[in-house]
Amino acid sequence: MKKRNDMRIGILTGGGDAPGLNGVIRAVVRTATIRYGWKVIGIFDGFEGLMGKTNTKELTPWNTRGILFRGGTILGTTNRGNPFAVKVMEKGRQAEKDLSDSVIKNMKKLKLDAIIVIGGDGSLGIAQKFFRKGIGVIGVPKTIDNDLSATHVTFGFTTAVETATDALDKLHTTAESHHRVIVVEVMGRYAGWIALEAGIAGSADVILIPEIPYDMKQVCAKILERKKANCNSSIVVVAEGAKPLGGEMAVLEKDSSGYALRFAGIGDRVAEDVKKMTGMDVRVTVLGHVQRGGSPCASDRILATQYGVKAVELIAEKRFGHMVSYRPPEITSVPLQQAIRKMKLVDPEGNLVKAAESVGVSFGR
Fold first, then answer.
1. How far apart (Å, rounded) are the C-alpha atoms in residues 112 and 7?
2. How far apart (Å, rounded) are the C-alpha atoms in residues 146 and 154?
3. Which fold has domain 157-293+347-358?
4. Interatomic CA distance for residues 202 and 161, integer angstroms
């Protein structure tokens, strides 16, 4: 390990973007440079910035000023840059090639003593593999789906819920005016946290999540029950990974491990079924990447700052192979291997689901 004032650390953002990424970057830069006197090298577009010709830039408190309240990431990101499985064409056929050794060589050329990887389970899984190959890696959890079990909450999640809730507030009035059922599709591949919390906060009538396969007859029974009571509009919130009882998720594209990358539009499918079975006027609103964009809320800015500071502290303590974790009230850390072992899913019998059902929300079961 070099002297305290002679350290060079890299930082990259991988996977989907989330409100608060820039807050983590800012905190890392300011803590590393002001508190420890280190240099910070920003790596562009995830691990792709270390493959082939490197794409990096030294980050300072000066060139990272004013980014705390900005959405997105100044470093760029991608969810397809896995150095251990790079898609290449060999003899006219697509194959996968392991370029991790060349990435390690580039890290050494850049004289990086450690690297901070901000990402979800995919990016952190890659980070864990590099740690096994001897690289000093620290992980920072990032996913608006809030599906990492090793931390209480991930930054960006609260902002995404607030964005979805604001949309639901607006959709209520237009649904009531036109006596319509409006189906609102939100993000959530395997975990329905955004749909659940935004649905409760936004007074949805039906919430469909991946953890509870839905029966369309039960969904429509709830809508028709409201109509019979002179409530001629309903709001149905559906997570993109929701699936019917005995059916499959509406997936367009999967990666080599079978992980869903793109979805075929479960909102449209639900809307079509509702229209057929109730005869009501139905519209679909897909919030999509609106949930990822925009300024992070205050709590996400604070959490991102705490995560960035802790990541640098873990490097100073030589606790490599760990991920920053929020265990209220402490910001602590857990081994990367533990962090990516299990997804945090909604408990179908948990307090939030039971509370929603107690106030009349249907989960289609």
1. 8
2. 6
3. Rossmann fold (3.40.50)
4. 10
pLDDT of 138-197, one tens digit each? 999 998 999 988 999 999 999 999 999 999 999 999 999 999 999 999 999 899 999 999
198 — alpha (psi -120 to 50), left (phi > 0) or beta? alpha
Q: Where are the domains of the chain?
A: 4-155+296-328, 157-293+347-358
Quick check: do 4-155+296-328 and 157-293+347-358 share a fold?
A: yes
Q: Where are the alpha helices (DSSP H) in the chain?
A: 21-30, 100-109, 121-132, 157-178, 193-201, 216-228, 266-278, 298-316, 336-339, 351-358
What does the alpha-carbon distance between residue 303 and residue 282 come to, in Å, rounded to a whole number?
A: 39
Q: The pTM is what?
A: 0.91
The question of whether 145 is a catalytic residue gets the answer: yes
Q: Which CATH class is domain 4-155+296-328?
A: alpha beta
Sign of the dihedral through C-alpha 56, 60, 62, 68: positive
From the list 17, 45, 121, 145, the catalytic residue is 145
Taking alpha carbons only, the member of 199, 242, 245 closest to residue 218 is 245
CA-angle at 200, arms to 197 and 202, nearest 5°: 100
Beta strand pairing status for 56-59 and 39-43? Answer: antiparallel
Q: Report the candidate in 309, 319, 292 with the shortest Cα–Cα distance to residue 26.
A: 309
Residues contacting 224, CB < 8 A, separation 6+: 278
Query: DSSP secondary-structure letter at 34?
Result: I
